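Posting this for the archive.
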Amino acid sequence: MRYVLKQRELVAAPDEPADARLRPGDAVETLVPQLAALKSIAIQFTGPSEGRGYTQARVLRERYGFTGELRAVGHVKRDQVLFLARCGFDAFELGEGETAAGALDSLNLFTSAYAPGSPGAPPLRERFARTRSSRR
């Protein structure tokens, strides 16, 4: 089942094939020539220790400005959903045994983040830096 993140809620969405798919070892740059025409990109997670998809998502969003759907597929567990969302994923195909309710709970584990990410409020370190500089 595919779930789409909308305003901090996971909404069930019809299964649709992605326009493109990246495996862990694939270079994001291979998609750049057709990026403007792509509506969705699925990024494959092959196991619990596979983290290259996080980087692929950040590069697509931040360096190349991809605004379409980024979908995490494969070995996607509830504990990853918050961090996947912070890297730019907005759709998830949860792994076997995972529920939307559990994944939604994980989105609410933390209300603030120290490191930058997308989307959301500025990270704590930026807010603290602004506070410190305004006191001077």
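The first strand starts at residue 2 and ends at 6. The two ends are 52 Å apart (CA to CA).
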